[in-house]
Design goal:
single chain, Serine Threonine Protein Phosphatase 5, Tetratricopeptide repeat, 26 helices, about 475 residues, mainly alpha
Length: about 475
């Protein structure tokens, strides 16, 4: 009986050993296959220490017998997230061979190729993504955008229509179709699409296009109304792409983290922006630009006490960084620390004597304190250092007007208009001055300029028109 039990035990041990051996053999096969596909390590000499360590660890894991495939995937993310695009491309090409049914690899590779201008291979990859993950909308959206860029309108329209079949109000697909309509002169078709886009996105998408369209259609008042109530964001915002956007979690490059934080904050997610900046500070604690961005973000979030430390550190790490001094002083003033704020400005000017912004801020502080002569001198210093911007001219002009020095004040307003033609405040002040001094010809000229400037609030225009009627007994032409 004992002999039989021993034989059974030996047989089971042999089976386990055989199974384990087979598993170990397969793991070795996977390791060899991954190792053959891995790119060489890039030059990491200038990379932050944390990034160097992460790359080396991921590369080592990909070369190990245990978890080679997962290590390979992790390495691809680290490379892509931190701007090593050639290495990431190499990884994705290998991962496609190992996991041909995974749609992430062709999608991420297509984004890299499209960025290089290799549109045809990128489009082929996005076709594969649509087959593997038909509900993942960023693939047809990016296909449509790429096809639009290379002037293949019918194929681009088909890609956008494919998105709308899954999401009937997708603003990016509607915007793409509207662009195709505009290019083909189909204004009546473009209009409802653009109106839906701006309504759905609160003018963060389609602002410039719809204003231009209304002007082409002769709807000038509508175009003017939109300009008066909304401002262009200044940058096109890509549609959300979770597979691509999620790479930021593997980023250890402070510059890229800073850019991503800025975009995230503008898109209404300050909490994520804060987290990204905190990671950037951890990676590069002496990076002044990151510290400054973090401090200004805290101010925007209302954490004024928390912002003091990062902004003060900016002045210590880089005493010649004028914005650090300016924002620290402004924050101290908001916290009611007037003496500290003025002392900070003085220290900033000592370290940055050629900073027009610091001279302007100091002039405003002096004016508020009633030290008018000193304030005028600081305004003039700011103008000498930066004559092509209107702010100091406007402040100095308004100060002269309060001092009953109207001729000097109007001269500064005209200089502000030279620095920035069409500036709404300068136009309004010059128009009002012409009205109250009885210069009807000049008043008419200035009012015409005011009416043509959409940045002047309607209420302000109406007040000027009423003043003109009271002064001259008739409405302006």
């Amino acid at each position: 009986m004992k002999r039989r039990s021993l034989l059974i035990l030996l047989a089971c041990t042999a089976l386990v050993a055989a199974g384990g051996g087979a598993w170990w053999w397969r793991a070795g096969q996977a390791q060899s296959r991954v190792a053959a596909l891995l790119p060489a390590l890039p030059d990491l000499s200038s990379a932050p220490a944390a990034l160097r360590e992460r790359v080396v660890q991921a590369d080592a894991r990909a070369r190990s017998r245990l978890g080679a495939a997962k290590g390979f995937a992790a390495l691809s993310r680290v490379y892509h997230a931190n701007g090593f695009l050639e290495e990431a491309r190499h990884c994705y090409e290998g991962l496609e061979q190992i996991e041909p049914a995974e749609p992430r690899w062709p999608h991420l590779l297509a984004n890299i190729l499209a960025g290089y201008g290799e549109i045809e291979p990128a489009l082929e990859l996005w076709r594969k993504v649509r087959e593997l993950a038909p509900d993942y909308l960023p693939a047809p959206l990016r296909s449509g955008d790429s096809l639009l860029k290379v002037n293949r309108p019918q194929e681009a329209a088909a890609a956008y229509e494919a998105v709308l079949k899954l999401d009937a109000e997708n603003p990016y697909a509607l915007l793409g179709l509207a662009r195709l309509d505009l290019a083909a002169g189909r204004w009546e078709q473009a209009r409802p699409r653009l109106e839906q886009v701006v309504s759905k996105t609160n003018y963060t998408l389609g602002y410039d296009l719809i204003v231009s369209l209304y002007e082409r259609m002769g709807l000038n008042q509508r175009a003017t109304d939109i300009r008066g109530m909304a401002k262009a964001s200044g940058a096109y915002r890509d549609a959300a792409d979770p597979w691509l956007d999620g790479l930021i979690e593997d980023c250890l490059d402070p510059y890229r983290l800073s850019l991503a934080a800025g975009t995230t904050a503008r898109n209404g997610d300050p909490a994520t922006a804060r987290r990204l900046l905190e990671r950037a500070i951890e990676v590069a604690p002496e990076d002044v630009s990151v510290r400054f961005q973090y401090g200004t973000l805290l101010v925007e979030l209302g954490d004024l006490a928390g912002a003091i430390g990062p902004l003060r550190l900016c002045t210590e790490l880089s005493p010649d960084f004028s914005d650090g001094w300016a924002h620290l002083s402004s924050l101290q003033a908001r916290l009611g620390e007037a003496v500290a704020a003025e002392r900070t400005l003085a220290q900033g000017l000592k370290n940055c004597p050629q900073s027009p912004g610091l001279h302007l801020q100091y002039a405003r502080t002096l004016q508020q304190a009633g030290r008018i002569g000193e304030a005028i001198a600081e305004f003039q210093a700011s103008i000498r250092l930066r004559p092509n911007e209107p702010d100091a001219y406007l402040d100095l002009g308004n100060l002269y007007i309060r001092q009953q020095r109207n001729a000097e004040g109007m001269a500064e307003m005209r200089r502000a208009l030279e620095a920035e033609p069409g500036h709404p405040m300068a136009l309004s002040v010059l128009a009002f001055n012409a009205i109250i001094t009885g210069d009807e010809a000049e008043a008419q000229r200035c009012l015409a300029a005011v009416r043509a400037q959409p940045r002047v609030p309607r209420e302000q225009v109406q007040k000027l028109v009423s003043s003109y009627r009271e002064q001259f007994g008739r409405a302006p032409p």
